[in-house]
Amino acid sequence: MQLPPKVTERAFSRLSEIGAGDQGQALRIAVEGGGCSGFQYDIRLDQPAEDDLVLEGLGQKVVVDSVSLPFLAGATIDFTEELIGARFTIDNPNASSSCGCGTSFSM
């Protein structure tokens, strides 16, 4: 059994700040083919779907579809604010390498 991804309180707080849950939206974390390393993350606000894994905290939801789930086993979804901007980040132990932009990885 694979560990589901974890979502930090900072990530849930940010979703709360932007009012995602109030609009019936969840943060969708998906993995798709492409990017400079073979796979890339697709991170966006979306409606939860029936086959999603739903991670909840602070009244907010983060959803992962069943196809992306194996790629995100044990990953940590966080929110960081840096000089280059604020963004949701994914610390993925399954990625063997990732690119500088942090949105693409290989396994």
Automatic annotation (TrEMBL):
Gene3D superfamilies the UniProt entry points to: HesB-like domain (2.60.300.12)
Domain of life from the UniProt record: Bacteria
MF terms (GO), sorted A to Z: 2 iron, 2 sulfur cluster binding; 4 iron, 4 sulfur cluster binding; iron ion binding
Pfam families, per the entry: Fe-S_biosyn
Biological process per Gene Ontology, one example term: iron-sulfur cluster assembly
Domain Core: 6-102
InterPro entries, per the entry: ATAP, ATAP_core_dom, FeS_cluster_insertion_CS, HesB-like_dom_sf
Database matches in NCBIfam families: iron-sulfur cluster assembly accessory protein
Protein name, as recorded: Iron-sulfur cluster assembly accessory protein
UniProt organism field: Roseovarius litoreus
